[in-house]
C-alpha cells in the first residue's frame, strides 16, 4: 500500500469515516480516543491491511488530517493515540505534534494545549444536534437487542467450535451505562470480527438471551479458558450472564452490511465500540427473520469470554479432580481429598508401595495448559517432597491430563499480581 494508489485512498477515507463516528458518539474527550491497534483492527474488518506498528499508518493519518483541513475541519489524527500501560488509550505519538506545527496546520502552543484544542474542535464539529430526524438514543424502549463481539485473535473461538461447544454462557462487557442496562430476558446477538476470507467467518454467529445483571470477577485464581491475549484477559473483569446458541453456519457480515435496512447498524458505524453494542427494534426485526428457530432451554457449558461464572468454574474444577482421581485409582493408588486443608495441594495419592504424590489439580476449559498458582501452592512446590502439578485441559468436553514436577512448575511460574499493603505508609 503506497500513497496515491487506490488501496491507500480507501484506507484514508475509511479512517476519516471511522474517526468521525468515534468523535460523534463520544461523551467525553477520553471516549473520543482510539489506539493505533484499534484503528488497525477496524480497518482490517473493512478488508484493509494497515499494521499499527509500521508501514503506511502514519502516512494515512497525515493524509486524513490534510483532507479534513482542506475542508476547514480539525486534525482528525488527534484522535489516534498510543496504548497506555493499562491497555487504555494514552496520548498521541511525537509525530502528531510535529505534524501539527508544520504547514498547512501551523498550530501554536505546548503539546497538551495543541492536542486538547484539537480534541474539543473535533468533538464539536462532529456532534450532531440531539433531535435530528432518525437520531437514536439507547433506551429500553428503542432496544431490540444487545450485541457482543468476539475477536478470534484474542479469544480462541476456533478451538471452542472444534470442541463441539454450541452455547456461550457469559461474555465480557465494558462496565458503562449500557452494560448496567442489561437485564434478564433481553435478547443478545453474538458477532465475530476479523478480516474477510478468514475463519471463523466474520458475521453473526449466534443469538440468545441475557440472564441477569453484569457481575465483576477478579482474575486471580480463575480458569484462563480460551483467552489468546493474556494482557486483555487480565484487564477484563466484567461479564454478562447469557445463554447464546451458536449457529451451524454464520450469517456473513457482508450479507448483512449489504442489506440497506441494516447498513446503519452500530457495529458497522462504530465497530471499535466495546461491548455491548446497540441493535434497534427495527434492525432486530430484520435479523430475527433471518435466524432459524432457536431452542429455549438453558445449558451450562464451558464457554465464556473470561473465566466463566462461579458455576462454570466449579464444574471445571470438579471435572479436573475427577479426571486425576480416576487416573490414580486406575493404577491402584489410594486417593485422599485434602483440598480444604490449605496444604498447597488438593489430593494426596499413595501407591501400594508407599510412594506419596501430593497433587495440586488445575482444570481449564481451553486447550492451553496456562494456570494460576497461589503463593501457598508455589511455596508447597518449593518445599514439600512429592509435590506434583496435574493440569486437565478441555476439562468439560474431552479431558486431557498432563503432569508437571515441582521444579518445572516453579521455573515456569511468573509473578502476575502483587499485593501492595500501604496501611503503614503515609500518602505522598
Spell out the blueprint of helices and strands.
Layout: H1 6-25, E1 34-35, H2 36-45, H3 57-70, E2 80-81, H4 94-101, H5 111-126, E3 143-150, H6 157-162, E4 167-172, H7 177-181, E5 187-192, E6 203-210, E7 215-216, H8 230-235, E8 238-252, H9 253-257, H10 266-269, E9 277-280, H11 281-290, H12 310-330, E10 334-337, E11 347-350, E12 356-363, H13 375-383, E13 387-393, E14 400-405, H14 406-412
Parallel strand pairs: 1-2, 3-5, 12-13
Antiparallel strand pairs: 3-9, 4-8, 5-6, 6-8, 7-8, 10-11, 11-12, 13-14
Helix pairs in contact: 1-3, 1-5
What does the average pLDDT come to? 84
| CATH domain class of the largest domain | Alpha Beta
3D shape: globular
| Total beta-strand segments | 14
Number of individual domains: 3
End-to-end C-alpha gap? 51 Å
Largest sheet: 7 strands, mixed
Uncertain spans: 129-136, 296-308
CATH level-two architecture of the largest domain: Roll
In N-to-C order, the SSE pattern is HEHHEHHEHEHEEEHEHHEHHEEEHEEH
